[in-house]
Amino acid sequence: MNPTTPIHRAPDSPAARQALALAGVFQAASLVDELARTGQVDTRAWETLIEATVDTNPASFEAIYGGHPNNLRRGLDTLEALVGRKQANPVVLRYGFSLLMLMNKLRTNNAMMDSLGQQLTRIQGQAEHFGSTHENVVASLGEAYQETISTFKTRIVVQGDPSLLQSRMMPERVRACLMAGIRFGLLWHQQGGRRWKLVFQRKALRRALDSLS
C-alpha cells in the first residue's frame, strides 16, 4: 500500500463508520470468492485486509483501513448490491453474512477472544519483522483462524476450483481473508452495527454509502 496515501478523516456519522467496517467484511467475502475461483486477488484490497488484521493497536479508526475509503472500494461496491443498487453475487453475500454470524459467536466466547488476541499480538510482531503480507504472516493468520473460528460447528464452506483451493498457500490465504472479515465484523459491532439494522435501516446505509462515494 502506498505510504503517501493521505489520511482522510473518517466521518463522524455512526452509520458511515458502520458502513466502512461492514465494507471490510464484504471485501473479505469478495476476495475469498475471487481466490477460490481464480487463484488471483486484487492487491490493494488484499493488503488493506491483512494490514488491518495484523495491526492490533491502530492509531485511529481510519488508520485501520489505510486512511482512505477507496482501500475498501471492493467492499463498498458489494454493499451497493446489498442495498439493491447493483447486481448481487449470492456467494459473496452468503460468505459475508456467515462471517457476521461467526463474529457474533466469537464475541461471546471470552476464552477464544483472549486466545485470538494473544495470537494476533504475536503475529503483529511477525509482520513487523517480515512485512504484513509475507507468506509467514499469512500462514500464521490462517493457522489462528483454523485453531479458533474453524472450531465452531458452523463453518464457511468455500466454493471454487478444487485444484486451486488445494494449491500451495491457498488454504492459508483464504483463511487469512476470513480472519480479516471477522476483524472488520468486530469493528462493525463496536461501531453499533447490528444484523437487524441491515434489514430495517437500509435507507441509512444508502445515505452512508453516498457520503463515501
Automatic annotation (TrEMBL):
It is found in: Cytoplasm; Cell membrane. InterPro entries: HflD (IPR007451), HflD-like_sf (IPR035932). This is High frequency lysogenization protein HflD homolog. It is a peripheral membrane protein. The gene is hflD. It comes from the Bacteria. The keyword Cell membrane applies. Gene3D superfamilies: HflD-like. The lineage of its organism: Bacteria, Pseudomonadati, Pseudomonadota, Gammaproteobacteria, Oceanospirillales. Keywords: Cell membrane, Cytoplasm, Membrane. Belongs to the HflD family. Pfam families: DUF489. SUPFAM superfamilies: YcfC-like. PANTHER family: HIGH FREQUENCY LYSOGENIZATION PROTEIN HFLD (PTHR38100). Its main location: cytoplasm.
